[in-house]
Amino acid sequence: MSDCLFCSIVAGEIPANVVLRTDEFVAFTDIDPQAPVHTLVIPIEHHESAASMAQANPELAGRLLATTEQVARAAGIDDYRLVFNTGAGAGQSVFHAHGHVLGGRAMTWPPG
Ligand code: 5GP
Ligand code: ZN
């Protein structure tokens, strides 16, 4: 999608600190980190949300989940919180599916 921020990052039109790239996913550092490690992992294929990706291509969604472990390791952590904000009311601001991989400090639950 030409007007999608994350498609532009995938295409290299907008710079990002890419920590992992596969033929299906790109993981890069969030521009406004909420934890010492805050990496976004996105499918190269455009989907509006994690749920719509899972409905359209469940295998891809499963592989994205599996890839989060590799993303965390690439960022130097073992344990992490995985967040998919879904819908503007829940804080989704970019409508290209993405998981937030958060860690590097004690992750309290419930979140503050
Ligand atoms: P959402 O709020 O949709 O769940 O997550 C979108 C995330 O994208 C936010 O955490 C925000 O900081 C991050 N973000 C927004 N614009 C950019 C950008 O241009 N580059 C990077 N690396 N992250 C961005
Ligand atoms: Zn996109």
Supply the helix-strand structural class.
alpha+beta
Q: Count of DSSP E strands?
A: 5
What profile does the largest beta sheet have? 5 strands, antiparallel
Calculate the terminal CA-CA distance, rounded to whole Å: 35 Å
Q: Give me the strand/helix succession.
A: HEEEHHEE
Q: Helical proportion?
A: 25-40%
**How many helices?**
3
CATH level 1 name:
Alpha Beta
What ranges have pLDDT less than 50 throughout 5 or more consecutive residues? Answer: none
Widest sheet: strand ordering:
1-2-3-5-4
CATH overall fold name = HIT family, subunit A
Tally of discrete structural domains: 1
* Average pLDDT number: 96
CATH homologous superfamily classification: HIT-like
- What general outline do the C-alpha atoms trace? globular
**CATH 2nd-level architecture:** 2-Layer Sandwich
Strand content: 15-25%
Ions and ligands: guanosine-5'-monophosphate, zinc ion
Word description of this protein:
With 112 residues, this protein is α+β, with helices and mostly antiparallel strands. It has a single domain (5-103), classed as HIT family, subunit A (2-Layer Sandwich). The chain has helices spanning 5-10, 50-56, 58-74; strands at residues 18-21, 25-29, 37-43, 81-83, 99-103. The site of guanosine-5'-monophosphate (5GP) has 14 residues, from β2.
